[in-house]
Write a structure and sequence with these properties.
Elements: E1 8-14, E2 17-23, E3 27-32, E4 38-43, H1 67-74, H2 77-83, E5 89-94, H3 101-105, E6 120-126, E7 130-139, E8 144-153, E9 158-167, E10 173-184, E11 193-196, E12 199-204, E13 221-223, E14 226-228, E15 234-236, E16 248-254, E17 260-267, E18 272-279, E19 285-292, E20 305-312, H4 320-325, E21 329-330, E22 333-334, E23 337-339, E24 344-355, E25 363-368, E26 372-377, E27 383-386, H5 390-394
Antiparallel strand pairs: 1-2, 2-3, 3-4, 5-10, 6-7, 7-8, 8-9, 9-24, 10-20, 10-23, 11-17, 12-13, 12-16, 14-15, 16-19, 17-18, 18-24, 19-20, 21-22, 25-26, 26-27
Helix pairs in contact: 1-2
Length: about 400
């Protein structure tokens, strides 16, 4: 859907689902009302290339999932309600991981209510310099209300996010908050793509991988990015899609010496880079999940190649009981966050797309300046991305 306006936000349909499209003639972003998922993020001069993953199955509005009707296509409610609508960038809120058996019996699915509830438009604002969309969702099970504002500015390839969690109960609420960014083909290819983040101490998932198709050993510490293979030896996790038929989950502690955390991915052949930047104090962890044609159960059916880069308050997507009881801290870092009684917690972060010159193969660091984001590679001058609102977001 094209628009002649320099700055716009319009209702739209995305693969039969309700959506809004924001644009500024440099970038455009499509966000869905079902689950609040961000489905596409594109440069206007390459509208066919979005780094965000789109699943190979037909998705539906996740709030319409009914186990009796949809379990065959998407799996049981434990994961199926989420997977029925999952795409691109989704949020895991209140808990990160699967529900317990008892929670699933009460209608809960993977990664918390926000990702499979219907979001509502709170407001749209358009001026000569900015366009913004705000959406919100009420989460009755956990007693939270969540809102997200996405802002684009004129002639910039940066999207500014402001998210607020409001606690509607008279008691402090401890919870998980994860921005689950999933990248996929054709952008994230084994031959041409690499990922980057300021990682340090790391650990593999304690429970293997679905259907026993694990690439890595379980519950073993390592130093990013060299992870322990199940068959012996090490593997560099900056390369995607490492072995067909196998997957993994790992947790990485971000460098405590940096104020700004980031995740980034670059495709050398396309000359395209995507990055998210955030305050490390808000999100000290990154979890990485990779599915590489391994899981046979519906809806995966051994046809999915995707990698999640998930910046988070918590390291691992495990049952809430395990996360709270046995993993309150890891590597000396808290693994949960808190919003006080009848109060709110706010975070800011940005995402960006930019062209990269030939020979710019790897991201070594990302720095935030007064009005730009500086992306440093192995050699040569850094890439400067104009970001006039970065001071309000991350400084």
């Amino acid at each position: 859907m094209k628009s002649s306006k320099a700055l716009f936000c319009n209702p739209a349909s995305w693969q039969g689902r309700q959506a809004y499209v924001l644009g500024n003639n440099v970038i455009r972003m499509t966000t869905l009302t079902g689950g609040g998922h961000i489905a596409e993020f594109q440069l206007e001069d390459t509208p066919s290339v979005s780094p965000l993953w789109v699943p190979p199955w037909k998705t539906i509005e996740p709030q319409e999932y009914r186990e009796k009707t949809h379990a065959r296509d998407y799996g049981t409610i434990t994961e199926g309600k989420l997977l029925s609508g999952l795409v691109g960038h989704n949020i895991c809120l209140d808990y990160f991981g699967s529900p317990s058996v008892e929670e699933a019996q009460q209608g809960l699915s993977q990664h918390g209510e926000a990702a499979w509830s219907k979001w509502r438009k709170s407001g749209i604002s358009v001026s000569q310099q900015k366009v913004a969309l705000e959406m919100s969702v009420r989460l009755p099970v956990c007693g939270l209300r969540f809102s997200r504002k996405i802002e684009l500015r004129k002639n910039e390839s940066v999207a500014y996010f402001k998210e607020v969690v409001r606690n509607e109960r008279k008691a402090d609420h401890f919870f998980h908050w994860t921005e689950h960014i999933t990248l996929g083909l054709p952008f994230l290819s084994h031959e041409d793509a690499t990922i980057a983040l300021p990682g340090t101490k790391s650990i593999t998932f304690p429970h293997g991988y679905d259907e026993g198709k694990a690439l890595l050993t379980s519950n073993e510490e390592f130093q990013w990015p060299n992870a322990p293979l199940l068959k012996g030896g090490k593997v560099d996790l900056t390369r995607p899609f490492l072995q067909k038929g196998l997957g993994f989950v790992v947790a990485i502690l971000l460098d405590k010496k940096t104020n700004i955390g980031f995740i980034a991915a670059i495709n050398r052949n396309l000359g395209l880079l995507i990055a998210y930047c955030f305050k490390r104090s808000d999100f000290p962890w990154v979890a990485i999940w990779e599915e590489n044609l391994g899981i046979a159960a519906a809806p995966w059916k051994q046809r999915t190649q995707a990698r999640g880069l998930e910046f988070s308050t918590t390291p691992l997507p495990v049952l809430r009981r395990e996360a709270f009881i046995s993993r309150g801290q890891l590597f000396g870092e808290p693994t949960l966050t808190c919003v006080p009684a009848m109060s709110a917690k706010t975070v800011h972060y940005v995402s960006l797309l930019t062209r990269v010159p030939a020979g710019f193969a790897n991201v070594r660091d990302i720095k935030v300046a007064s009005n730009q984001i500086m992306i440093h590679g192995d050699s040569g001058p850094p890439i400067a991305v104009r970001a006039s609102g970065i001071k309000d977001s991350l400084q």
